[in-house]
Specification:
five-stranded mixed β-barrel; alpha/beta
């Protein structure tokens, strides 16, 4: 029987994409009449790489509409805050920064102020913007980014505020213009949303359920980027290991990686983020066997204690995590760099339990860590749990963890002496005038004396002297 080629995930129709292209032209016509010179837009991005990638699409659309770009908010005619909801601190910064534009808007009523991204997708936040920030003209959610031309057209021409925050899972939109921040490094979102519902995490509520782009679309985008000179492609998803489960026929993430690895050219493939529950041995074997995949595994473990992991709804335990790490080390040895995310002070965590996180950090010897103090997120199960440990106490645990990692990083640095790494040379160095800087797969910086025309190439570099935060090296000549 033929397999039915039916996709479970909705796709935005070509007609809809065409409609948005037409609206780009309409916006262009409105702003060219309104302004003698090309108006500037300022896009401010908070949060993770998915948001960075969304902002590159936002800039792509704005570019088509005829906007130029500035980093300076007070010379912009359009300011867009692309927000993050993962921790309270990020939200406070957004409110502070949006609030500061009140007088600018009062003096420049033609300026459009917009907010989008994960934070807006929470009802209590959108309500607060509606009531307390009346000078914000446009608010749109994570599922309708591709409709920016239409929404901006409405904000510019109708004398009313525009709020577009549908709650349903967004469809996949292909063919949305993109303006990338960097001409060597590119982000490719391969899937959107998350099905995991870790008990502390807001992401599934603000980005919806997992949905994957077609492998052919991802591969075509990678090919085009490599052909136009990109050297580093990072595949993005909240949980890349579940890629393809909603496609028909289904494709695994490892298969997608292999197809990209087979493309012609000298480039590196990176990916983030992996979830230990779905990280397979097949994926680790694929990393080890594909020459173009960076030997860097970002595998967040969040806590080293099994009771806490269960309360976090993570669906793996410390033993399973270590098994994966040890398998990856076995296959990739010294070439492998491992990084992780950790939450300190999850509700109900005791100091004894936190010590299991410390011992796991000690055991794995991560290249670097992203450490966070738990932040309650409204609407998540963890926000309802008892949280008796004082913030000051959590702060002490946090410092104990970062001190430990600093000690490990310093020991790691010493171990790199005399080792050779294949590195991407990305720019001028800081150690002296004739130094240039390169990055290893594991994001270590090695500076060496060399010619600037090596920038943009891959080179084998031998570490001659580890310093505190960078390594000093020299090009290995064979
Ligand atoms: N509080 C603190 N950190 C969090 N993270 C996600 N949600 C929270 C929260 N409520 C961290 C996790 C995740 C990273 C992106 O942010 O470590 O892996
Ligand atoms: Fe949040 Fe967990 Fe999904 Fe990561 S995997 S985005 S931590 S729910």
């Amino acid at each position: 029987m033929m397999e039915e080629n039916k996709r479970k995930t909705a796709v935005v129709s070509e007609n809809e994409i065409k409609k948005q292209q037409e609206l780009c032209k309409k916006v262009a016509s409105v702003i060219s009449k309104r302004y003698a010179e090309k108006p500037l837009a300022c896009v401010v991005t908070y949060g993770c790489q998915q948001n960075v990638a969304d902002s590159e699409h936002i800039k792509g659309m704005l570019n088509e509409m005829g906007y130029g770009f500035t980093e300076n908010r007070t010379e912009a005619k359009l300011i867009i805050f692309n927000t993050c909801a993962v921790r309270e601190h990020a939200e406070d910064r957004v409110f502070g920064n949006v609030g500061m534009l009140k007088s600018y808007k009062r003096e420049n009523s033609d300026v459009i102020i917009a907010c989008c991204g994960c934070m807006m997708q929470q009802k209590h936040i959108a309500d607060k913007i509606k009531q307390s920030f009346p000078f914000v003209d446009l608010v749109f959610g994570t599922h309708v980014v591709y409709r920016l031309p239409e929404l901006l057209f409405n904000a510019l021409t109708k004398k009313k505020r525009v709020f577009e925050l549908p709650d349903m899972d967004g469809a996949i939109a292909e063919g949305v213009p993109v303006l990338r921040d960097n001409d060597r490094k590119a982000w490719i979102p391969i899937m959107y949303g998350c099905n995991n519902f870790c008990s502390y995490c807001i992401v599934p509520y603000v980005r919806g359920r997992e949905r994957s782009r077609e492998a052919a679309d991802v591969i075509a985008e990678a090919k085009e980027l490599i052909e136009s000179g990109y050297k580093e492609i990072t595949l993005l998803g909240q949980n890349v290991n579940s890629y393809g489960k909603d496609l028909s026929p289904s494709v695994t993430f490892a298969q997608l990686l292999k197809s990209i690895n087979e493309l012609d050219g000298d480039f590196r493939i990176r990916f983030m983020t992996s979830h230990p529950r779905d990280c397979t041995k097949e994926l680790i074997e694929t990393m080890a066997s594909c020459d173009k995949i960076a030997k860097h595994l970002h595998l967040p473990f969040q806590s080293g204690n099994n009771r806490v992991l269960k309360a976090m709804n993570r669906h793996y335990n410390r033993e399973k995590y270590l098994e994966l790490i040890n398998y990856a080390k076995e296959l990739m040895g010294d070439a492998l760099s491992i990084t992780s995310d950790i939450i300190v002070g999850f509700p109900g965590e005791t100091y004894e339990e936190f010590k299991d996180t410390l011992s796991l950090v000690e055991e794995v010897k991560f290249t670097s860590l992203f450490t966070f103090i738990y932040s309650p997120r409204k609407g998540t199960p963890a926000a309802e749990m008892e949280d008796p440990v004082a913030a000051s106490e959590k702060g002490r645990w946090f410092r104990e963890l970062t001190d430990l990692q600093e000690k490990i990083s310093a020991e790691n640095m010493k171990k790199y002496a005399e080792k050779t790494f294949k590195c991407f040379v990305y720019g001028k160095g800081k150690l002296g005038d004739n130094y240039i800087a390169a990055r290893t797969d594991g994001n270590l910086i090695i500076e060496f004396e060399g010619d600037e025309n090596l920038i943009g190439t891959f080179q084998n570099i031998k570490v001659t002297k580890p310093l505190t935060y960078v390594l000093k090296g020299e090009i290995e000549r064979n």
